[in-house]
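Researcher: We are triaging several targets before committing to wet-lab work. For this one, the compound of interest is calcium ion. I'm pasting the protein sequence and the ligand SMILES. What I need is the predicted three-dimensional arrangement of the protein with the ligand bound, expressed as structure tokens, so it can go straight into our comparison scripts without reformatting.
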Amino acid sequence: MPAEGEGEVPAEGEGEVPAEGEGEVPAEGEGEVPAEGEGEVPAEGEGEVPAEGEGEVPAEGEGEKPGVIDAVDDNFTGASGNANVGNVLSNDTLDGAAANVNTVTISVVASKAAGIALDSNTGIVRVNPGTAAGDYEMMYRICEKSVPENCDTATVKVTVAAEPILVAAPNVAGMPLADVIRLLSTLGLRLGTVDRECNDDVPENGVISQSPAAGTQVAPGTAVNLVVSTGNCPCCQGVSPIDPTNIFLGALAVLALLIASLFLAGGGEAVPPIKL
Ligand SMILES: [Ca+2]
């Protein structure tokens, strides 16, 4: 009995249990886990996280902060040849502050009007000479200088008024005043101030001079100021204008000089008092 019991139990227990447990567990566990874990985790983690994070985060962060760039539509009025009817940046903002050429760039996106132009260096809009009256429109874009892809667009409209037809001021020198008034009326001009003075060359009521000068291009309704002759100048007045006040003061000055010269001629001695 002891021979069988002692011989079987230990033989089966000691022979099977250790053989299966020691043979399978270490082989599978040690062979698979390290191979997959060490091979994949570091490779994916180190390869992707820094590349995406460092490449995108700073770029997006700087672009989103000033994302409040705001180009606002403009409405200007002007006339042909106006060099400055307004500035498109006047109502545009960047981060809540007024946009300017130091913080944003300006460009024309589309323009349907050759008559108006936008200076990208200043933002100033001008109306080109010869532009007919009407409404003109263009689209412009502003972009943040530090983040060029951060942009906004707006429309600028310019109403160009009809260009006034200018009139050349006529030459009315020597003309009688009555004729000048009729001529000015015919040309759409009007009579301005009329000063009168004597003149030996221009007959009475004839125009001596005018302002604006003959040939000057002026708008309709412009006043023309005249100097009209009162006829020949009386003796002396035509030579030099001396009024009675000046004559009186001049006489006093001459008298004073005369007294002074008499005093000096006396050697500087005081004139003795007159004794009766
Ligand atoms: Ca604007």
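Researcher: Any quick observations?
Model: Confidence is low (pLDDT under 50) at residues 1-63.
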